[in-house]
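DM from R.C. (forwarded with permission)

"hey, sorry to bug you on a friday — could you get me a structure for this? deadline for the figure draft is monday and I only need the backbone to look sensible"
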Amino acid sequence: MNDALETRSPDLKAQELQRAFDVFNQVSAELTQAYAALQGRVESLTTELAVANGELRRQYQEKEALSERLTLLLNALPAGVVVLDSAARVSEANPAARAMLGEHVLGSDWARLAGVRLMPTDAPDEWQLGPQRVSIAESPLDSAGGRILLLHDITVAHGLKADLERNQRLAAMGEMAASLAHQLRTPLATALLYSANLAQPALSDAARARFAEKATAQLQRLERLIQDVLLFARGESIGREAVPVEQLLGEAAHTLEPLCAEKGVAFSVGADVAGTIIMGSRKALCGALVNLLENALQACDTGGAVTLAAGLDAGRVRIGVRDTGPGIPLEAQARIFEPFFTTRGQGTGLGLAIALGVARAHGGTIEVSSQPGEGSEFVLLLPGGTQPAA
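My reply, with the result:
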């Protein structure tokens, strides 16, 4: 029995060794396959990495080329480019900007630099930089928290614009020279006639005084005509004075009240503009407003009414002049702001043209609404601000 057990034992061991060898072969084969797959994956990743590196290298080269082109473009730009960091200091400036602001502009505090070098002008976003007139456009840099400023030298353009406006006014004057000569000749001839009557020895004192008064009135009319022509020809100089709107209305009302009383026309003023100011020329603004009020008065008959009202509309000052006259014909409304266009026999046709020029010089405009038989309203729209605290 023991011999049988000893005979089977080597067989069992041989079988176990065979099974172990089979498992080893199987694991070895699996490891070989895994290694082969890993090697293939490494080769694939190596290829992909090479492609990615090539793409990154290409993108880098493109960005380098783009950066070089942008640098050349900034250096060639005639406009000044200034980059401000989050602390509002100059971090970059192209050659044009350095030529305008100085070679040592980098690192400067922009607010201090602008306060020293830039002088405000009568136009928004335009500044005087020494002999140059420049416009400044600003854009935020969201990623860096800074700003980029674009400085344009508009000295030549500003001069050409002023020359063009002057030439347009002179051209308009030339076109209407014959009409103006007629308007000047009529009151002059009338004044000469009244003056000749003053030389009559038998003239009574009362008649002499009456002729003298009429001659003076015609000469004053001549003076107004000439003043209007000169004002339109040269344009009005717009200053940088802070003009309280309430005071502006008061001055205009003070001028018109006695004229309305003399003609028998009711006059009223209403305003809700406390503390509001307009930056510009008090004289020019008051003159434009008085022109509108006088036109309204001339449109009214005895018993009519002229209303002056002011308020704020979307950040702008709105000054309205309304009358109870016959209204303006539709065909005339499109031309009422043209120089020398008038519906009155003794008018120059320059009052509304001058008023519109003043409004535009202050960054505003004039709107008109009128219906035949229902009167007219002229609205002066101007940018306004808040009166600074004392």
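R.C.: lifesaver. The chain has a mean pLDDT of 80.
me: no worries. The longest helix spans residues 2-76.
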